[in-house]
Design a protein that fits this description.
It is built from 13 helices and 13 strands. The protein is of the alpha/beta class.
């Protein structure tokens, strides 16, 4: 027995190189930053007004653990129409952002020693959440050869009798890719066959450009009987990206009622409930005008074109046009530096803050993640500095 005051889980929690790079960039206050994964828009006025009205009407007390009925019903209506399947309020759990939704999804499906399949590269907090539960993360590489799309055949090879869940992320952060429907159908069939749960991170589901986007909730496994629906999934959503509400911390998870029901008990033991005034603002986001969403996505699409044009004109860099999100996954392998060393040199020598691809997993080595949720001027200045680095090599 040791006398350590810190639990082994906390002592070995995987550190995020995203946060490490963010902290390094604090020493360069004038740096051009292509690091932060959030919209550069403000929350639409009608959403802010709804939150203010709720505070003025004293909606500042505890509310239902699973979310206020109005919000659960609004989310259910939206996704019933979008997915063309029946979603009831009982299928919806409101959470403190998508991260708590992921926490709940793993809590109800994963036990210590269970395996969770995770794409590599992927959002690094997936690893931390699996680690927190005593689970084992099993990485499946996602490569440029397949347009950065997770393939069902690679998932199949990673399945064991200990597989409890797979986390998929489409549209993908950091890759900007959108999975093919055929692969989703095959993964759903594998989930039914082997008895694991598909946890689908879909927080960028409305930030899609020319690609055809499919949710895991829309597919029917190739092995399913006629009329049967796939229900071995938990789909995670958020208001953060779609409505520029990152600081409101409003997320949700949709799934079968037997998955969702225990989450209210978990919420009671964690944070009790998301503030009611935040949830009223979220209702206004869903039920109010959507033109602000359309305008944001159109703006990202235009800025994507600028980023792609500029990056692909720089000697030694290449960029597949991202199908979704506001991230550019730039191949820097020809420059011959590790992604961490490159990101550090760009920061120290050229006052440009980026995220090394290795922060998202071993398969991210040789890449940088750049956000284009910034102004045209910022994109132009950043690319000028990348050109200057290329010229000085």
């Amino acid at each position: 027995m040791t006398d350590s005051r810190i639990s082994p889980m906390a002592e070995t929690y995987p550190a995020s190189d995203i946060r490490k790079m963010f902290n390094l960039a604090l020493d360069f206050p004038d740096a051009v930053k292509l690091t932060v994964g959030e919209p550069d828009f403000t929350t639409p006025e009608h959403i802010k007004a709804a939150g203010i009205r709720a505070i003025e009407h004293d909606n500042t007390r505890y509310v239902a653990n699973a979310g206020i009925p109005e919000l659960r019903a609004a989310i259910a209506r939206k996704y019933s129409a979008r997915w063309n399947r029946s979603i009831e309020p009982a299928n919806v759990m409101v959470s403190f952002g998508a991260m708590e939704a992921l926490t709940f999804a793993l809590d109800v499906t994963v036990s210590p020693g269970d395996e969770v399949i995770i794409p590599d590269p992927s959002f690094p907090n997936y690893l931390g959440q699996v680690h927190r539960l005593g689970g084992v993360a099993v990485s499946v590489p996602v490569t440029e050869d397949n347009d950065f799309k997770l393939r069902a055949e690679d998932v199949r090879s990673a399945i064991t009798d200990k597989t409890a869940a797979i986390i998929i992320n489409s549209p993908s952060n950091p890759l900007g890719s959108v999975m093919d429907r055929a692969d989703l159908e095959q993964i759903a069939a594998l989930a039914d066959e082997h008895g694991f749960t598909v946890i689908s991170d879909e927080v960028y589901d409305e930030m899609v450009f020319e690609a055809e986007y499919t949710s895991i909730a829309e597919v029917k496994p190739s092995t399913a009987e006629v009329g049967a629906e796939f229900d071995r999934f938990l789909a995670i959503g958020s208001f953060s990206k779609t409505y520029a509400m990152t600081g409101w911390r409003c997320g949700f998870v949709i799934g079968s009622e037997d998955f969702i029901a225990p989450m209210a008990l978990l919420q009671e033991g964690l944070t009790s409930s998301l503030p009611g005034f935040v949830q009223e603002a979220a209702v206004a986001a869903i039920e109010g005008p959507q033109n602000a969403v359309d305008e944001m996505v159109a703006s990202y699409a235009r800025r994507r074109e600028l980023m792609v044009e500029r990056i692909n004109a720089i000697d030694g860099l290449s960029l597949l046009p991202p199908a979704a999100t506001f991230y550019a996954w730039v191949n820097v392998s020809e420059w011959g530096l590790s992604s961490w060393d490159l990101a550090t040199r760009l920061l120290e020598d050229h006052n440009l803050a980026t995220i090394p691809g290795s922060a998202f997993g071993p398969a991210g080595e040789g890449y940088l993640r750049l956000t284009f949720a910034v102004s045209d001027e910022t994109i132009t200045t950043a690319c000028n500095r990348l050109e200057a680095f290329a010229a000085a090599r």
